[in-house]
Amino acid sequence: MRMMMFVSFPVEQFNAAVRDGSAGAKTKKILDQLKPEAAYFMADRNGRRCGVLIVDMAETSQIPSLAEPWFLTFNAAVEFFPVMLPQDLAAAGLEGLGKQWA
Known about the structure:
With 102 residues, the chain is an alpha+beta fold. The protein has one domain: ACT domain (Alpha-Beta Plaits, 2-Layer Sandwich). It has 5 helices and 4 strands. A 4-stranded antiparallel sheet has the order 2-3-1-4, with helices on one face.
């Protein structure tokens, strides 16, 4: 199942990694292991650093292997959200659901 991972970095810990020059290498190491379909980094609506990764999760037992690198490296918070591609949405049967529940 395709999942969106929302990773939120605490300011102090990530600042420390930026100052000591390790933030980029640590982030690259995690991304090389996780191999996300896509990864985007930005500030969230509250101005904190965050990342959004798209990963394919075959089983929920993969959650620790996806989240722990962020927890242990940056003390980050991680949330998971199931997401769909346009073709997934097209196959969802919205027309039938609309008729059934209208």
